[in-house]
Amino acid sequence: MEQTTQAAAVRTVLGDIPAAELGVCDAHDHLFFRSPLLPGQELTDPLAATRELRAFRELGGRAVVQWSPFGTGRRTDALPRVSRDAGVHVIAATGLHQAAHCTPGVLDRVMDRLAELFVAELTEGVRQDEDPDGPAEPVRAGLIKVAGAFHGLDTHARRVMAAAAEAHHATGAPIAVHHELGTAPLDVLGLLCGELEVPAAKVVLGHLNRSPDLRVHREAARSGAFLAFDGPSRANHATDWRLFDALVALAEAGHTDQVLIGGDTTTAAARAATGGGPGIPFLLRVLRPRIARELGEQSADAFFVANPARAFATHWH
């Protein structure tokens, strides 16, 4: 695994911070998110986002990584204010989701210059989703979000991942991957870390709890990538009961230092502050104490503090 040094930094919406200052981290969530596949459940309200973060902070939370990429209503205009008001570090994403999740018309304007867009958002500032040629917000992204397909990689996924790899090589930014129903992490590693030569320690494999294949998890972990277990999610809770089986299996195989935990709140109904929950606070109210009881405080600290600091810090180019 890559070792973080004092020169490595996490790029938040309020500026770069030393990795050691990140603190207790929700490694995969959404404060703002909009998708044609989730009509009526958009996350658009800054006050609701602030309330959710304040509840998280009251339980000891200090950082949230938002995986909403370009074209999904990520509200970079509101993120700095929400971060300040709640007293929580927020990391924003560039990148591109599956085509079905993107705002209609967005893909036509950006597909021919994805790498250029990603690099600009990481180094200069994030563009408004509706106007990728307009002025950048004074907010820089801190990671690149991409997405695979169900049990494989389609043409869209390969094209976006190739651009993400190019942007990584230009900037050093970590790449976070949505796996459809938790599938195809080995395909992703073969492309990103094999063909495209992205160091595995700069790759975060998301949603692995949705396909609790412990053998695949262990094989993916042997690559050196980070493995994100981002539930429970109201929309994807069928395998919640297998989460601890997966965490224990990875710990017993010696991969405690590669596990990340997130909430993946993608709908208004899933918020704790304004919906039916369980929301972001659940991670510290319920999951962290259970992890500490099952695997010990050292593992809990690794999952929520040490591992995110290494996964999302880099030597920015």
From TrEMBL:
User: Is the keyword Hydrolase in the record?
Assistant: yes
Task: Please list the residues that carry the modification N6-carboxylysine.
Answer: 145
Provide the transmembrane region boundaries. none
Question: Pfam families, per this entry?
Answer: PTE
Question: What SUPFAM superfamilies has UniProt attached to this entry?
Answer: Metallo-dependent hydrolases (SSF51556)
Q: Which UniProt keywords apply?
A: Hydrolase, Metal-binding
Q: Which family does it belong to?
A: Belongs to the metallo-dependent hydrolases superfamily. Phosphotriesterase family.
* Full protein name: Phosphotriesterase
Q: Which organism is it from?
A: Streptantibioticus ferralitis
